[in-house]
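ingest -> validate -> predict -> emit
validate: passed (alphabet ok, no gaps, 471 aa)
predict: started
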Amino acid sequence: MISSNLPALQVVLPLLGAVLAALVRRGPIAWLIALVVSWTMPAIAFALLRQVLTEPDGVVSYALGGWTPPLGIEYRVDLVSAYILILVSVMGALVISYAPRSVASEIAPERQAWFYTMYLLCMAGLLGIAITGDAFNAFVFLEVSSLSTYVLIALGHDSRAVLSAYQYLIVGTIGATFYVLGVGLLYVMTGSLNLADIAGRIGDIENIRPLLAALAFITVGISLKVALFPVHLWLPNAYAFAPSVVTAFLASTATKVALYLLLLSVAAMIVASVVAVFQANIKRMLAYSSVAQIGYITLGIALITQTGLTGGIVHIFNHAVMKATLFMAVGCIVFRTGVVRIEDLAGIGRRMPLTMGAFVIAGLGLIGVPGTVGFVSKYFLVAGALEKGWWWLAAIIVISSLIAVVYVGRVIEVAWFREPTAAIKDAGKPPLEMLAFTCILAAAIVVLGFDTELTAGIAARAAEVLLAGMT
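emit:
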């Protein structure tokens, strides 16, 4: 029965799609395959969420090959993983729908089929990370997504894209090594690789030093992978020189699938926001903004309260929507003008009002203006900090938002209040499909900023599940 095999299909379909895209070796057909597969993924993810909500224990377990866990590999879906599956699959579907014209303008025709192949492999890896219940299997999927990401970044038309991919390859390899060392220590201490089984056995361990070392290795390894401050140096170049579609996809998904607690979250919010202010390249500015926004997510986890954790979880989704909108808008601009320097975007708002309107809405979301999804996230984070009596932390969150006013306001001032440059005067409207999906996501920022049941409601329930597992 198909419904009982949905966890496997969530990973198998994009893998099969990647094989088909590689075999056809024609960009338009490969895109069509990627489109069909990508839009199938949200349907499966929502179906899995429905199953999770109807299960008495709130968990859907799928044993691969008939080997029951903890001996066999388990795909395990609860509210938290279902939330991430929906995030990755929905954003992937929207980005691939936006992609064809942008890809055609930035990637040589003979490479386009490989681009969509790598795209589907990356999606399979990200979905696999979210759905697997096995620590080593998570490493496998992490590497599947990473290896395909290296290729996606290297496909950028700028020669520096290859160097950026190489830098990420080095950092990613180091991160993978740290992660494997941590998993190995966990296996030695618990005798299991099943995550749920490990959680049950940890309480029986007397010597916790190896356990702490294992968690430290895993945390550092994944921090390198997801660009947590201060090990984020690979990310700005990767975002700046990768194809526009890749930056939209990675910014909205890849750094969201596995975020761990770090006390450097506060520093990330402030330092990365300040660095973003001084960037000349709009993609680099948004990249440093991503580092700061990831700090909000880990900060919410660090609070370890219902309210704070809800804020961290909901910001995983909200930041994905906002940052995908921003990078899609930039992709529209690059498609028509080839311009990425902020100072060279003078007057672009007059020539591409809908595109820059979407950018402004997403920028207001990053700031946390009421009526946007960013306000929802920061409301929960500030409330969580105040619940603990940490007024100073609430003040830091507000200050970091004010810094966002500076770098977002800088782009708005250049785009809307200056006379168009020569390059901008000749800019035409972006392709309809690119503009449409950019505007759809911009509208979602506002709609979900008022109607928070889908995002904050599920995030609150997921926070309850996580906190219950800690008691």
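Confidence is low (pLDDT under 50) at residues 258-263.
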